[in-house]
Amino acid sequence: MFCCLKNCLNGVLPAQSVHITKTANPVQLDSSHMGHEVVIIKNGLRACGTGGVLANAPLVQSKSYFEVKLQQSGHWSIGLATQQTDLNQSVGGKDRESWCLNSNHLVLHGGDVIYRLDASKGSAVPNGGQNSPGHTVPGTVPVDLSPISAPPAFPSTASPPGGSGESGLPQEGDTIGVAYDHVELNFYLNGKNLNLPVLNVRGTVYPCLFVDDGAILDIVLDNFAYGPPPGFERILVEQSLL
């Protein structure tokens, strides 16, 4: 009887609206995995102080992406790391447990330079072959990793406030995108691929940020400024993958 009445009244009774409350993204910076002098604010999305911090979710899906807004310049590192990395360092990529693009325009892993961004060529220069750690690229300034105090290996082109990315080098106000598919780690500057493919990333890795010398970084985990590359998506927590 109820079913018949329901079908009869279908389209007659006004539709009932259901209010759906949008839940906050559970992924954020992890206060249980950060350096002693790191400060996390803005609901777990902003890092400042000195040291490193991981996100609270590993990159377990096949293709994941996140962004980092360079809110304030200083010394910073952005990339991936395992929970075994030393988060009390001010430089990412200094140990074998982290892979990072740094504010001195070098991609580091294990303290070795994998790439350096070349402003004059607008591209990346591999150091001893792709992802093959070697000696300093001829003609560049040796890198001082503790802390980053060496000048860039090339002149930096100033950008207007808010960042432009026109020089091909990250500036204050720019957005760094990070894409990882368990084969390659790639970095993007304001939506443009920097062509820094990092291979041989090992272990269970998490997004990582390192800050020092006044740097302020905001991790962006959804509502991206530039959007992920085709096939990539925001970081998903493990239970949502089931």
State the main characteristics.
242 residues; mainly beta; Jelly Rolls; 15-stranded mixed β-sheet; globular; disordered N terminus; ConA-like_dom_sf; B30.2/SPRY_sf; AGAP001349-PA
What do these coordinates show?
This protein is mainly beta and 242 residues long. The chain has a domain of 165 residues: Jelly Rolls, CATH 2.60.120.920. Helices cover 3% and strands 35% of the residues. The chain has a 15-stranded mixed β-sheet that branches. The longest helix is centred in the N-terminal third of the chain and has 8 residues. The two termini are 40 Å apart. This is AGAP001349-PA. InterPro entries: B30.2/SPRY_sf, ConA-like_dom_sf, SPRY_dom, SPRYD7.
SSE map:
Elements: H1 2-9, E1 29-34, E2 37-41, E3 46-55, E4 64-72, E5 75-81, E6 98-102, E7 106-109, E8 112-118, E9 123-126, E10 175-180, E11 185-189, E12 192-193, E13 206-212, E14 216-220, E15 233-234
Parallel strand pairs: 4-15
Antiparallel strand pairs: 1-3, 2-3, 3-13, 3-14, 4-10, 4-14, 5-6, 5-13, 6-7, 7-8, 8-9, 10-11, 11-12
InterPro entries: B30.2/SPRY_sf, ConA-like_dom_sf, SPRY_dom, SPRYD7
Organism: Anopheles gambiae
Domain SPRY: 61-225
